[in-house]
């Protein structure tokens, strides 16, 4: 992977979009197995309905993982200095996550060149599901 160079990026530049397939029960089951998070609200429709939800829904951390993939598709994992996210909505079955990022600041910290990136995960209706910011180092 060839990471972008600090001198070649500017505030307002966008990261390559990460569009994902619709969330389905298989996605949730696979994430449960991979993460060890077997909360029944994500896999048991009866449990979800008792909690007054229409159906199961995606783990918030699944969408967080997608945002991490957005970043590591752009720069190596070792360049990521900080990620802060806020959960803003539920990702329901059938939602198609799309992750985006935009450079909002260029800075230098202890001699290291970095950029701050506003990151977001939305669904096909442009509803925010996660919003946040990441700081990555660039050469």
From TrEMBL:
One Gene Ontology term of the molecular function aspect: fatty acid synthase activity
Any one GO cellular component localisation term in the record: fatty acid synthase complex
Annotated Gene3D superfamilies: Hotdog Thioesterase
Listed GO biological process terms: fatty acid biosynthetic process
Domain MaoC-like as annotated: residue spans: 23-122
Protein name in the entry: Dehydratase
Species whose genome carries this gene: Cupriavidus necator (Alcaligenes eutrophus)
